[in-house]
Amino acid sequence: MKSDKMLFPIKLNGKYGYIDNKGEICVEPKFDYAEEFNGELAIACIGDDFGFVDKEGNLVVEAKYEDAFDFSEDLAVVELEGKKGYVDNKGALVIVPQFDEASSFSEGMAAVKIGYKWGYINAEGKVVIEPQFLDAFDFSEGLALIQAGGKLGFIDKAGNVVIEPKYDYAYGFSEGLAAVQMGKKFGYIDKQGNSVIAPKFSAANDFAEGLAAVELNNKYVFIDKNGDVKISGNYDWADNFDEGFATVAIGDKYGFIDKEGKELIPIKYDNVDTISDDLISVEVNGKWGYIDKQCDFIIEPTFDEVSRFIDGVAKVVFEGRVRYINKNGEYIWKL
After folding, report:
1. Which of 51, 66, 267, 323 has a 20 to 30 A CA-CA distance from 203?
2. CB 188 within 8 A of CB 177
């Protein structure tokens, strides 16, 4: 049964458990290690052995693995006796550990390594694309980036090479286009391998929300899918748009802009991180705090590290110790 409540890992007397967003212990500290929940399950350890725990504190996946990774498409990579396989979210070992390396599932397929070559399996563990590549990446929009002969290209889910490996560097497809490098410059191709935006950028990000941050003449600008510059500024660095906001930097100061290029958060902070629950984490003089969208400090910059708010709670580090705060900056858990 799914639970809407969010739990947060704590360490008490050398053991890990979980609290809720009020700071009340919901899972008694009994694990030797525990991570944050990803959906309904979280990685936890007994001794040196990894498994997965639910929000009631039950080990759904027995703690017997040498390593474990987060679930993706209801399957998680686990390691046993030096080989990697997959468990499902009911705890069953559904794909026996047999691979030297294994990636998370994406679009129903996962890249796996046998010996020195990479191929792909389906969710039943059947090899559907024989190991033949020097490297292989997740499927995205029906195509996967692969390396062969020292160059990068793309295959489809039948294993057909649809874009010949000829690029020095490349990203997966996003919004129908992929950034590729030829020589020293980046451009963009479509899924047929046609050059849509000529390689003229020193760096190029994925398209997100219709725009991509690229480096042109030693400054970052945002282009559309025609390659036209839509947002320009004196930016020395820029990140992708996410929910209408993008992080940009001028010199060593950071802020946020919107899709019109307007500064929503002035470019004056030593660093900025995420926008969550209408609060933005910012760094001032080596300490982190949170401001609102009017740039007023809601939580003063006193922390060494911070994270995004989830269900009204954020993990912070103060004086070398992990603590949790609410949106008023009050501690709900500290030791």
Report:
1. 267
2. yes
